[in-house]
Amino acid sequence: MFILLLLGLLLPELYIWHYFMRGSHWLLQLVFWMPYLATVVLMLLFNSPYNQAWMFRWGVYMILCFAIPKLLFTLVSLVGLAMRALSPVAWRAANVVALLIAVSVVGIVVYGLCAGWRRLTVKEVELKFADLPQQFDGYRIVQMSDMHIGTYHAAPEAVKRIVDEVNALQPDMICFTGDLVNSSPSELDIFDDDLSRLKAKDGVFSIMGNHDYCMYNRHSSQTARLKAIAEVKARERRYGWQLLLNEHKVVHRGGDSIAIIGVENSSRPPFPDYGNLAGAMECAEGQLPEFKVLLSHDPTHWRREVLKKTDIQLQLSGHTHATQFRLFGWSPASFVYDEYAGLYEEQNGVTEAVNEKKQKSDSRKLFICTGTGGNVTFRFGAWPEIVVITLKKA
Questions:
Q1: For residue 138, what are the contacts with CB-CB under 8 A and spacing of at least 6?
Q2: What is this structure's pTM?
Q3: To the nearest whole number, what is the mean pLDDT of the chain?
Q4: Coil, helix or strand for 123?
Q5: Whole-angstrom Cα distance, residue 53 to residue 51?
Q6: Closest Cα partner for 36 from 61, 67, 57?
Q7: What is the spatial distance between Cα 374 and Cα 272, in angstroms, rounded to a whole number?
Q8: What are phi and psi for residue 296, nearest 5 degrees?
């Protein structure tokens, strides 16, 4: 896989060099090849025993800034080259279009790297349920997800702003749906005070995401990794968050109640699967309240188990980030996930993405928050988001 990736990056370089750079001054050729060589070195280092998180980030930056624009230029130019036999100007015209596309992509990447990843948005969503208890009509849940807090070391003031924005909303409940860290609890050191300030009337509920198991870091032993995981959990509890590890809590309003169920990460390979939904729904006091909200980091859990084996009305998830890129409503995440951002509902065995205004009150719903952070400081279109979910009785 690694060799195929390097080869895929090399082919556009060879095409552009052969047709446009060959014969130019050696200094220009050196400048042309330097980004590719730097990308190869970073990738080799990251895949070595001496890997560091910054190697991955800078490798991604190089691919975004140089490899992808060159790939798109090559693809469009090749079309013109193939048509040159039909029209002498086809290749020249295609190269002009290819250059404009490549420059536009560079502009998108630069904006996404410099400003887009800090362009915080607050999304308001109203979800309607026929069986919502009357006392919870108008109940406001703020969903946060995928902070990947280590990435914010580049702009720690952004975390303070996120916390201030959430608290200003005065929610009834805050739900954090996983991936607090990238790979280590030490990332939290400078953010302890800010994260402890998150407040809601019924508290902050959280779950574990795949990154919270510290599996993307070099550890001296399995014992060291387990210690890191335990520290992530301990930090969340010290912040006053109610971390749900395959368990549930019942929230009361007057004589009504709803269940908040939280599972550990439940995913398909290569991500870890520690979820135990059946265990999370066990109730020593008898039965759970009729209305249930599930916090599960990976939205694929909805189709794999939740719809088939439970009567849970609402699942809140994160994980996908919508690949941190959306253009005219489209995201590459659509190639990987059936559900990757926003609201989905299931009724009579049919699952579909829905506009909030067209939702059905008797359907089962999944809402995916695209999160605020990421492994790299880049976002375009899929801006960092906090979601305010208002539950309404239809």
A1: 390, 391, 392
A2: 0.92
A3: 94
A4: strand
A5: 7
A6: 67
A7: 18
A8: -140, 120
